[in-house]
Amino acid sequence: MMVKIIPKLEPPTQAAYHPKILYFGQNADEICDLVSPHIGMMAIDYMEHVGDALALVRSQKLDIIVVDQRGDNPSNQLILPLLRSIDYNFKLVVISALSQVGTFLRMPGVGRVLTAPLRARQLSNALGLDPQKIRHDKIKLAEEAEKHIEIAKPLPRRSPLVFLSNIGMQLVSTAYKRLAFVLLGILFLSFTFYGTMIGFFLTSSTWAAPQTLTRGHVLVDRMEKDIGDLKVALNLNEQRLVEVSQKADEAKSAAAGAEILVNFAEDTVSKEIVSRQRQIKTITSSIARTDKIRKVFAKQLDSSGLSKDLAKLYGKHLIDRKAYTSNTLGLLETGQRLAGIESELEILEGDRAMLATQLLMLHSLKAQLQQTGPMEDITAASADLLLLTKQALDARAALETARSDFEVSQKTHQTLLNTEKLINTQISNMETSTLGRAIATRVDVLFVPYGNEARFKTGTALYSCSFTFIICSKVGSVGQILPGEIASVHPFFGKPIRGFFVEANLTDTTAATREIIHAGHPPLYL
Question: Of 75, 130, 208, 260, most Cβ neighbours within 10 A?
Fold first, then answer.
C-alpha cells in the first residue's frame, strides 16, 4: 500500500506584502468578490457602522482604510473627518461616484479616489497588491510543496492506524451508498410529484389562482380613476344645475316683465280701438248730416222754379234790378256751398275709410297679442301707429323668448337631475363592487381560467391544500363574479392564459398566499 506523507510547508523565502485593511461601507459583497483571489495575502475587515470602524482603527494599526461613499448613509460623510484624528499614518482610499471625484481629491488625507464600477486591477493597485508578485509567491509555494512530498515504500504489515483507517473508509463508503439511495429516492419522488402535477393541471378543472386586490393593483387603480372621473362629472353636473336654475329664474323674471309690457300694449291697442270706433261713429254722423244738407241744396239747385220766378218778377218790374241780382247771387252761393259740402263729404269719407283701416289693423294686432306663438299676418297700419305696433311686437317677442328660455331651462334642469341620479347610482355601484371595495380594504379574488368556470358558481365551497392537492381544508366559499376578461400566467406552466375574476369569501386569509385553490371538494378527497 502506498502512502503520501506531506509535511507542513514553510512560507517562501521572500515574504509577500500582507497589509491590514479596513473596508467601511454597504458594498462588502462586491469588495469581497474583487479581493477573493488575494485571500491569504492580506487581512481585511468589513465594517458598516462608524463606531465599530473607529474602535477597530484605534485598537489596531491599519495600513489601508477604504471608505465607500456610494451609499446614501450620512455616516459615510461623517467618518472622513473623524479619521483625521488617528495618531498613526495609514493610506486612505475613497470609493465614490464619478461626479464627486473632484470633491474627495481636494480633501486632506485622501490618498486615492476610485470610481464605480470598480475593477479588480484598479482595487489591487490602490491596495498595493501586485498581481505579478502574488502569482509568483503562489507558484513558489506550490513548487516547495512538491519538493517536500515523499512517497513511502510498501509497509510490510498493517498497523492499527491503517486498520482503523480502513474501517473508517468502509463506514464512509456505506454511508455514502445509503445517502446515494436516499438522494435517488428523493429525486424519484420529486419527478413523480412533478409528473403528477402536470397530469393534475392537464385534467383538473377545479383549480383557480388566488390573488389579493388592494390599492396599487392595476385594476383597482383603474376603478379608483373611473370613480374619480365620475365624481368630477358629478361636480360639473351640479355646477350646471346651479347655472340652469339661475337661467330659469332669469327667464321667469324676464317673462313676467315681458308679460306686463304685452298687457300694457294690449290695453293701449284696446283703447285705440275704442277711440277709432268713436271717431268713425262721429264721422258717420257728420256724413249723414252733411249729406242731408247736400241733398237740400241739390234739390234747390235742380228745381228751376226760383230762377223763373225771379225773372217773371223782374220782367213785371215787381222787383228791381238789385233784388234780382241779389237773389241770383244767392243761387250761385248755394251752388258753391253745395260744392263745398260735397268736398267735405269726400274728406269725411276718406277719414272714415282710414279709421276703418286703422281699426282693422288694431283688431288684428290685439288678436295677435292675445294668442300664443309668433306674431304673423298683421294688417298694415298708418304711420302714426307704427310706434305702437313696434312696441307691441317687441313686448310679444320678449315674452316668447323668455318663455322659450324658461322651458329650455326647465327641460335642461330635469335632464341634469336625471344625469345626477344616474351618476350617483353608478358611483354607488362601483364603490360597492369588489374592485371598489378594494380601494379601501383588502379583497381576495380568484383567477378562474376559461374551462373551469362551471366549477366556480357563487356559494361553492373552497379548499386549500398544503401540498398543492393533498392535506386540504375548507377555507371559504365563492362570491360574486367580476365582469370582464383578465389575462394572467399559468401557476405551473408559466404560460399566458385568459379567464376572469370571482370574489373569494375566505375564512382563512392565508389561503390567498397559496398558488391554487380548489372548488367543490379536495382533489383527492384528502
Answer: 208
